[in-house]
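Example (one chain per record):
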Amino acid sequence: MQSHSHGGFTLVEVLVALFLVALGIVGAGAAQLAAQRTRQHAALLSEAAQLGASLAARMQANAALSALPMGANPYLALEYDALADGAPAGSVSCFAASACDPPALAAFDLHEARMAMFTRFPAGRIAICRDRTPWDAAQRRYRWTCSGDAQAPVAIKIGWHGAASGPAFVSMVAR
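Predicted structure:
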């Protein structure tokens, strides 16, 4: 009797090949998910930087109030936590036909900042204060507390919680 070899695949070889294909598909899906999270985090960082720059420019445009010391300067009183404070109440507008005076313009700017934190950032938080050292070198992170030194530069602190990335924080100095 002659033995014939068919050169086919055994069931074990087919199962191993299917396992490797499935492993590749799962790996590709995980890479896509990681890329999506990174993209979302980068978009929030960019938006936070734009919000901070916008606030700094608005403060410079309203120089009459921005130059006031702490306590009298409404910009330096901004501390808003979307999670704790909820949606900003009321609506403030400087788009009407009549011009806004400096206090109304400051109220408009701060309301816009609160709305941006509430609508664009997950559990967003913002603070504007005078702070000489926003970076805590010992813990290697930014801190929310402010030094309050009258000669310290104005710091705009923006933070949020990302579902996957944990807390994020952007701090910039308004010149």
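Caption: The two ends are 95 Å apart (CA to CA).
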